[in-house]
């Protein structure tokens, strides 16, 4: 029997090393910090799960978690349907398709901190286009002073920044559908809604799953844009989980509680992504059974 050449694993070694240094080792360091009271760089006291208990009982954490979940659900409810609609309206081929793809992707090229600065100016009532227009229409808009205005501004900013990603993913999924499906639909006299419902949407299931998970994870970890735009205010209206964590770790220098919260934060994202993934899998299976039936 010919021996198996194991040297191919050496090609994977650089990836393993990169993952170890970028993810595994920092995670283990955070776990170590989360069970210690760090009094100074040279002095630490083991406290076990004390910080975890304190973090889980923190009312500010509960408020930030509710704000974060509400924001992420709002992002998904707007960006996924809007991204699908944009993808359906985009040209299928030709120079128009190339031009639209470039224009759609422009917002994705802007760094996160610059996005916050753009909308900081855009929302001003004296020189900002949106703020001045709303004031001219008689709307009392002040994202720096009104909690609802601040929250909605962050939401609209995120929709503007990241909906193109969903649209591009859906566009790629639509272009991958064989033409034979559309030909069969035309022969059967299917309406446009029927084509979308029974051909395009089921075929987009894998792409949509990727889009939903990416947008959920990213929106659940949002930090830079609201920090630049509102600084987490007014009050705590836009203080999401990542900003709450930063305030604990950097602002208060509570490394032990901050490390424990980081682990809890990680587990919350992991759990919610797992639930969301399984729900989408079951929904997709039910849709396929209905279409075959």
From TrEMBL:
Annotated GO CC locations: plasma membrane
Gene3D superfamilies: MetI-like (1.10.3720.10)
Residue intervals passing through the bilayer: 9-31, 69-88, 100-122, 159-177, 206-224, 258-279
Ranges for domain ABC transmembrane type-1: 65-276
Protein keywords: Membrane, Transmembrane, Transmembrane helix, Transport
Keyword ATP-binding: no
Entry membrane topology: Multi-pass membrane protein
GO biological process, one term: transmembrane transport
Localization (cell): Cell membrane
Keyword Secreted attached: no
Superkingdom of this protein's organism: Bacteria
Similarity-based family: Belongs to the binding-protein-dependent transport system permease family.
UniProt-recorded name of the protein: ABC transporter permease
Lineage: Bacteria, Pseudomonadati, Pseudomonadota, Betaproteobacteria, Burkholderiales
């Amino acid at each position: 029997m010919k021996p198996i050449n194991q040297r191919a694993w050496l090609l994977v070694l650089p990836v393993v090393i990169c993952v170890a240094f970028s993810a595994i080792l920092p995670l283990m360091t955070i776990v170590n910090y989360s069970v210690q009271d760090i009094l100074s760089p040279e002095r630490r006291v083991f406290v076990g799960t004390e910080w975890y208990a304190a973090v889980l009982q923190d009312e500010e954490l509960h408020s930030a978690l509710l704000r974060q979940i509400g924001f992420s659900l709002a992002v998904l409810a707007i960006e996924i349907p809007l991204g699908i609609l944009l993808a359906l309206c985009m040209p299928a081929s030709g120079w128009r398709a190339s031009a639209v793809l470039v224009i759609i992707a422009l917002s994705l090229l802007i760094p996160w901190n610059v996005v916050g600065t753009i909308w900081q100016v855009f929302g001003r009532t004296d020189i900002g286009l949106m703020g001045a227009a709303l004031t001219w229409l008689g709307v009392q808009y002040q994202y720096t002073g009104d909690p609802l205005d601040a929250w909605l501004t962050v939401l609209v900013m995120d929709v503007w920044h990241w909906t193109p990603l969903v649209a591009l993913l859906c566009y790629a999924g639509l272009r991958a559908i064989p033409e034979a499906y559309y030909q069969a639909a035309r022969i059967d006299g299917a309406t446009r809604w029927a084509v979308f419902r029974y051909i395009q949407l089921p075929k987009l299931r894998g792409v949509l799953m990727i889009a939903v998970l990416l947008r959920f994870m990213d929106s659940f970890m949002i930090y830079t844009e609201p920090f630049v735009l509102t600084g987490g205010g007014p009050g705590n209206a836009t203080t999401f989980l990542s900003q709450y964590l930063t305030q604990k770790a950097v602002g208060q220098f509570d490394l032990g509680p901050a490390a424990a919260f980081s682990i809890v934060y990680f587990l919350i994202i992991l759990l919610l992504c797992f639930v969301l993934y399984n729900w989408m899998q079951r929904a997709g299976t039910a849709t396929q059974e209905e279409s075959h039936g």
